[in-house]
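During data preparation, a discrete fold description was generated, and the record follows.
___
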Amino acid sequence: MAKKKNRRLATLAIDALKDLLTGGGLISSTTGGLLPADRKLKYFIDSLADVPVPTDAHLVVFAFEDRLKRLYFELLGVLEQQSHDTLVHVRSKTTDTLLDLLVARPEQEQNLLKLLVNKLGDLERKIAAKASYLLHQLTTEHHPAMKLVVVKALEEFMMRPHMTPRAHYFA
């Protein structure tokens, strides 16, 4: 559903997936969600290395976790596509979703941060300012320990060729 051409359906599907993965919405964020709160997902082969003699139950959980990791990566691809949408509202909502996923769980945090930092170069001033504000929120309220990681991502962003002065300003 998130890959649909219909923007409204895709946006609703992404909101539902975000709530399902992070435990938002009706589920308590401390107890729910498909993504583990304390670690990143593992691929099947990496999970097998952790358990010397896996049972059938282990194998089912490992296979589920592997598939979830791959689908989550696909979701990031959809979010990247939506972050380049022509409608400002869709890009704004996608920027919020990127921050929510980054704050909630450690899965794919480098890619999420990269996508959020890329929004600093958005052609729409409103989106670039929002990305700057969300990054500030991330480093002050949600994850103060990520300041160095965010600064490195910003530095990498600013060193790209052909950056506009406005993108440098928001960064």
